[in-house]
Design brief:
about 400 residues, alpha/beta, 6-stranded parallel β-sheet, 13 strands
């Protein structure tokens, strides 16, 4: 890919018009970046923003040199396959970024790509921030010290993370989770069903086998088979499936054609995941950020996941994973709020049985709701503004009030 011509290097370091280089991977990072840019612009109306982002960041005024989708790789095997391209992209971004002359570099998630980039800029005197802590609570804690060697400050979405960094002398701040700021404490299920055209009184199961094609490929058929087994017991069950993107929709359509699910009671939507979650009685979903979204939607869930056999063997052989719980609601609560069925346990029979257990225990769902609301309130901290405050400190605190 040809590099755009370098932007002029005229700028005001430490003044009211800073240059901020942002690098976001995937749709989630793009959304975080857009919120951060809007909060920073309230402090620095004349600030310039550039780097890697998606549609949301472009709408917020970021000059994107590459699209966020360039960084959307997952799993050890997939990263190795894309490594030459990613290294080339990072080298080009270093050159372009240094010529542009940023006052601060903000890497948003995508740690495998961003931490090396942040360290490189930091070594050249540019302050670096890493927004969204890698899961140091799940993987080797010693990584926290290495992350601190890359970034001057780590902005954490979850409250248990700063204490881990503190043990390694790293400046980390809990800023809250933007999703908790934007989602209502009490979702409108009837309204969501009306918007989606789902029946008011019928049981509804939401199925979210992931947003990446690899995830859908590994989990989609299994999840749909489990949904069919539930529909054979619970009639008339409606199954609602949000497709994150056009490629995901196409793959899900192929899987649905193989599935015994009744087409008249199966609903595939373009996006609209939050409406689908709010409308559902129970959610069957892949482990990941979607579990947090389901919790904030106040829905009981069953969590399944399966990685490629190669990735799983490497993780197990090296003892990389250090937690007993994977789903974010369970991690945040420190106890099991949702059943987790991972790798060999992620079967249609086991998933269907766990889903049916929720449908058959309305009292258990009612007992779950206060815990979900407590966690929601804990995460609701006006995250974009808090993150902007932490970055403004590194810029010398200049800029107007938010």
């Amino acid at each position: 890919m040809a590099m755009p011509a370098p932007a002029p290097a005229v700028r005001t370091r430490g003044g009211l018009a800073p240059r901020i280089l942002l690098v976001a991977g995937e749709a989630s990072g793009d959304g975080l970046g857009a919120g951060l840019v809007e909060a920073l612009r309230r402090r620095y109306p004349d600030a310039r923003f550039a780097g890697i982002g998606g549609d949301a960041m472009r709408r917020a005024g970021v000059e994107t040199w590459y699209d966020a989708s360039e960084l959307a790789v997952m799993g050890l095997a997939e990263v190795l396959r894309h490594l030459p391209r990613l290294l080339k992209l990072r080298g080009e971004l270093r050159s372009r970024g240094l010529a542009w002359g940023p006052d601060v570099v903000v890497g948003i998630d995508a740690p495998d790509f961003n931490l090396g980039l942040e360290r490189w800029f930091r070594q050249r005197g540019v302050p670096a921030v890493h927004y969204v802590s890698p899961s140091v609570w799940a993987w080797r804690e010693k990584r926290a010290g290495k992350i601190g060697a890359s970034a001057d400050r780590v902005l954490c979405l979850f409250p248990m993370e700063p204490a881990i960094y503190a043990r390694h002398g790293v400046d980390a701040r809990f800023v809250g989770h933007p999703m908790a700021d934007t989602m209502p404490l009490h979702p409108d299920r009837a309204g969501a069903r009306a918007r989606l055209g789902l029946p008011v009184d019928a049981p509804v199961l939401a199925v979210l086998p992931g947003s990446r094609l690899g995830e859908i490929g590994r989990l989609g058929d299994t999840f749909l088979r489990a949904a069919w087994q539930v529909s054979e017991v619970l009639k008339p069950l409606h199954v609602a499936i949000p497709a994150a993107n056009a490629a995901g929709r196409e793959l899900l359509q192929q899987q649905l054609r193989r599935s015994p699910l009744r087409s008249s009671h199966t609903h595939l939507f373009d996006g609209r995941a939050r409406d689908v979650l709010a409308a559902a009685d129970v959610v069957l979903l892949a482990s990941g950020t979607a579990t947090l979204e389901a919790m904030l939607s106040k829905r009981p869930m069953v969590v399944g996941y399966r990685v490629s056999p190669l990735t799983y063997r490497i993780v197990k052989a090296l003892g990389l994973l250090k937690v007993e719980r994977y789903a974010l609601p369970n991690v945040l609560a420190g106890k099991d709020l949702a059943p987790e069925l991972m790798q060999d346990d992620c079967t249609p029979d086991a998933l269907a049985a766990a889903v049916l257990q929720w449908f058959n225990q309305p009292d258990a769902i009612q007992a779950l709701l206060p815990e979900y609301e407590r966690l929601h309130r804990e995460l609701r901290r006006d995250a974009s503004a808090s993150a902007a405050d932490a970055i403004a400190e590194l810029l010398g605190g200049h800029g107007g009030a938010a």
